[in-house]
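Our preliminary data section would be incomplete without showing what the modeling component actually yields. Below, a chain of 627 amino acids is followed by its predicted structure, encoded as tokens that our downstream tools consume directly.
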Amino acid sequence: MTSKFEYIELSSLISEKPRNGLYKKKEFQGKGHRWIKMGEVYGNDFLLAQQTELLDVTASEISRFNCQAGDLLFGRTSLTLDGIGDCLLVGDVDDVPIFESNLFRVRFDASKAYPLFYFYFFKSAIGKRLIQTIAKQTAATSITSTDFVSLSVPYAPLDRQKEIGDFLFLFDKKCEFNTQTTQTLEEMAQAIFKSWFVDFDPVKAKMNGKQPEGMDAATASLFPEKLIESELGLIPEGWDISPLSKYINIKHGFAFKGAYFSDQETDDICVTPGNFHIGGGIKLNKLKYYDGPIPEDYIFSKGDLMVTMTDLSKKADTLGYPAFVPESEGKTYLHNQRIGKVELKVEQDIKNYLYSFFCSSGYRNEVLSGVTGSTVKHTAPKKIMAIELAIDLRIAEKFSLLVSPLFEKQAQNMIENSQLEKLRDTLLPKLLSGEIELEGAGVVEENDVVNRLLKQMDFGVKFRPRQESIPEGSFGYIRLSGTFGSDGGTFVSIPKAVQALTKITSADGIYGEIAGNAMTENVLSGTVEIVTNNIIPLGVLNKICTAVFGKKTPIKSRNAVLLTSIHQAKNKTLDGIMNEQAKRFAFLEQSTMDEQEFGESLRYLESIGVVKCEGQHIALLDTIVQH
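Predicted structure:
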């Protein structure tokens, strides 16, 4: 099989000429047939069964402007060069939709092209850059279908296209599962919020002489046994009615200058309303990068609660909705003027309660009733802070604590999705160039995705043995020079305990290092195996152990050397390990551990479950490192 793709004109891979969509006046809109508009393309990757708008059309129009599974729909216009040519893949749908005039349809010849592969190509940075070469920039950026099919695109036999397309789709399947899990967790938190703070189910249960369901006695005791009339309707007796301003302040953001916004990725991300999900929560795509001066007072921290102040859509879809600032992953999130930062005025930690309140229908109605602006919809901090609510701070804090694991898992899923998407996008150019090859054809098991990747990557190592000589499940032969690697090299394996490993980097120097995904559930289980036939490279061991045990219990470099000493020592007694570590530190030209440091290190490693000390004998736990 040829490792590299050749490039041919796209027109030779399609079954018919591309077609621009249908234009209909407003009086035909709102009834009849499913109609895909540009919003579905820019908001989704796949069209399956999501709701679309309706249009009154004839049978002839349906015949000419229909979509079928495997069609790619491309946006013809965009306000920015970066947005031009975004595409959507149509999946299997029960009722065949048609598409609007701002889109054009590409239908592939099934005997030559696999639509899923070309979908990923055009969504990739390579494909986007290629589309931008035919873009015309006037009042808006636009492309034509005629220019589009003249582009040269990668081509390989159909089975290889299918293999790569299906392989990349596995990442999206995992992301979809994470997203569904996140939605379920959101629904659970909102259900509890509604029960406690809208329907007052615990109070009603106590009024009927029953114990509130799903809570311990201490929590139940916080709820009163009576509802009373108030200006907000029936509320629990003793609850305080006050405006939000009593509990929080909402701080306006900074007007970051547009001249410093960049399409190129930087370490600084300016959070915009476009980064908020409808219904609440943040999304880490279509980010705005910033490359200018940053006032210190307008930098978000992880866990900060935000609400949107502005929305460009006609329906103010995200206006007033909340989100938490995610894990930075080396990035800085900037607080711009369209976002409000929620600051607590009370001692109780009620952020999770406030998030859920900002997602509630009652709050939403209040926000929309005070919207200003025609084209751009606005609200203001003082408007939100004027909203009144009934609350007991003790119960709000108890709720926040109860749902905290749900929100933490949501954050983990979001970060994992972001990492999976980056890894997926990094893979495509390597697959096109032949730098990475997949073994076998057809859909692979999800558990094998990362192992396949690891086995193929060489991390820039100059020497690499034949693939068949690499042990099953290992990712390659790392050759080390100098005394520390004088015995040759090592095979390193990351088996199923860390199969969700998502970030792989080439280290400066002569050997590769692995950075683990500490948010992965399997990693958090506290087990990892490292299989070697020689010395475990210090950097590899240190990185993996840090990922497994978290930042609070890192394996320092000297302790990592001690672990390799225990691993290699023929006699696992204290004296034998002391001798072994002395040789290894000599290799590294570092001072040997004295008895005091040696004892302290062993006690530390035992405290985090890496080793077990029994008198003069040291056991290296097989669940952590095994030969």
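Residues 393-433 form the longest helix (41 residues). The longest strand covers residues 29-36. Preliminary results of this kind motivate Aim 1 of the renewal.
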